[in-house]
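Hello again, I could really use a second opinion on something today. My current little project is about how a certain protein chain folds up. You're getting the sequence in one-letter code plus the fold written as tokens. Here's the protein in full, and shout if anything looks odd to you:
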Amino acid sequence: MSQVLVEPQLSQTYITLRLSPAIEITDDEFFAFCQLNRDLRFERTAEGDIIVMAPTGGETGNRNADITAQLVTWTKRDGTGAAFDSSTGFKLPNGADRSPDGSWVRKSRLAALTHEEKLKFLPLCPDFVIELLSPTDTLAVTQAKMDEYIENGAQLGWLIDPEMRQIHIYRPHQAAVILETVTEIAADPELPGFVLDLREIWEPGV
């Protein structure tokens, strides 16, 4: 008899549903499952485990909104790519389904996708990803996720730790660099001219 194993995490804000090899879910079935449960965020690992994440708290939600707003403003001005918020799913080359807190993809890559592909989880890894560490996230787990983005084609990744006021910068074939207590960070040369103002990330408006 098939069995779904539920593995609670210490943070209490997400659980891991271990399905494989008992249950195999296709990409279309996983997308439909996510659409039926819109109040929750889901990711799926390359091994097929489903990560169920609860809604964020007020401070994290406010920080996410500020990050997205700044990225969208630059994206519209730049015109070479498209920005996405934390509700967007991406199907990475390794098979994982991920939803970074903020992301950006060059228009030339999006143009290669069909209309049907754009309606579901985008079958690519973003060129640029941002993950915001919430008070209940595990740093090691999030760092591993950042490594996964880079290994699957991201050219730049930022892991923002507001509690420690640190930015972990990830690029291909380079060790992660950590900046501390800076008030802004530039995404050059990958996103020319995009500078994230961190003052409201360190001191949220709620």
